[in-house]
Amino acid sequence: MNMKIYLAGGAIRDKLLGKKVRDKDYVVMGATEAKFLKRFPKAKKVGAREAVYILDGDEYTLSAFKSIEDDLAGRDLTINAFLQDETGKIYAHPDARSDLKKKILRPVSEENFIADPLRVFRAARFSVSLPDFKFHASLLPLMDSIAEKGLLKDISSERVGNEVVKACSGPVPGNFLMTLSKTKAMDPWFTELSQADKVPAGPPKFHPESLLVHLVDTMNRLSESPLRVWMGLCHDLGKTATDSSLWPKHYGHDAAGEKIAEEIGDRLKLPSKFIRAGSFAAKKHMIAGDYDILRPGTKVDLLMMLYRQGIVEEMFELVRADKGKDFRSQAKKDLDAILLVKLPDDKKNLGSKSGDILKQLRCKVLSGE
């Protein structure tokens, strides 16, 4: 069999939907790795699970299937079961075109999800990128079954984390969390949130919704930035640790959430900036939410801490999404002002005393002195 290369899955789906094609994945049939590399010597292998290569920014997977039909039958969702050859001819799963037209997310088969349980998270992610699509009646029960069998725990952290970051990049990122909550798929990667639909977000006067709904809504309001979306997911994680006897109040949830956010980020092996930002979102969102009544010294400490982490804008976007308070312009103005403050030459090199003096000078600027 001669080597043949097919454009696969999402690129064809998006093209048929009239959407901009961002990433291109290819399937290579009839080729060994040696044969493929002979033709494309610049290709770089990635991952260890299968023969996957990156070439000019595109992904090439050497298919283990013998035919086009077998490859299509081995995919996750019918709307992704497309291949296009070099002449432009499109091959599709029997249900692919119909489901795409009717906007249905349908699993190709139960066996495919068992073979690669990561498809549970991929299905949840497609509820983010294609929010107007509906679940086929078989999809959520299948996701539930895969989770109940304990198959999700054997997926590598990096693969799950990658799906999470992609979900945070979509137009309705909260759908990812909401979809997982409808199954048992919160465990083991988001165990802390497995009962979030039963936890009150706060006193009914301020938060009549559940914690889950509050997190979902906050994530959706931050959909412009994956980092901000992750901060939105993390900011109230501490409420999952509140003793139910104290509900609907959540005393100290900011401090409790710092560790939980860090643990989940580490568990998913997310980029270090995401882990730090999620932890700071949990720890500092309450104080940032009271920015207008903070003392100058507290403002200086907060702004400089956020500045060093590179998340000043992100934190105040979170406050706006969480509490509806907009301190973005004032915080930026204050930060610009205190960054202009310089120590006099005779106050430099005095150790910690120099730091204290610099903070006092910055406080005076915010006080208008």
Task: Give structural notes.
With 369 residues, the chain is α+β, with helices and mostly antiparallel strands. It folds into 3 domains: 1-102, 2-Layer Sandwich (Beta Polymerase, domain 2); 103-189, cca-adding enzyme, domain 2; 195-209 and 225-369, no CATH class. 49% of the residues lie in helices and 9% in strands. The chain has 17 helices and 9 strands. Strand 3 and strand 4 form a beta hairpin. Helix 12 runs antiparallel to helix 13 (272-288) and helix 14 (296-309) crosses helix 16 (328-339). The radius of gyration is 25 Å and the shape is globular. The termini are far apart.
Provide key terms for this protein:
3 domains, 369 residues, 9% strand, cca-adding enzyme, domain 2, alpha+beta
Q: Write out the strand line-up for the largest beta sheet, numbering strands in chain order.
A: 3-4-5-2-1-6-7
How many structural domains in the coordinates?
Answer: 3
Poorly predicted residue ranges: none
* Distance linking N and C termini: 81 Å
Strand residue percentage = 5-15%
Shape: globular
Count the helices. How many?
17
Series of secondary-structure elements, N-terminal to C-terminal: EHEHEEEHEEHEHHEHHHHHHHHHHH
Strand count, sense and barrel status of the largest sheet are:
7 strands, mixed
What structural class do helix, strand and pairing data support? alpha+beta
Extended strand count: 9
Radius of gyration: 25 Å
Specify the helix fraction band: 40-55%
What's the overall average pLDDT, rounded?
95
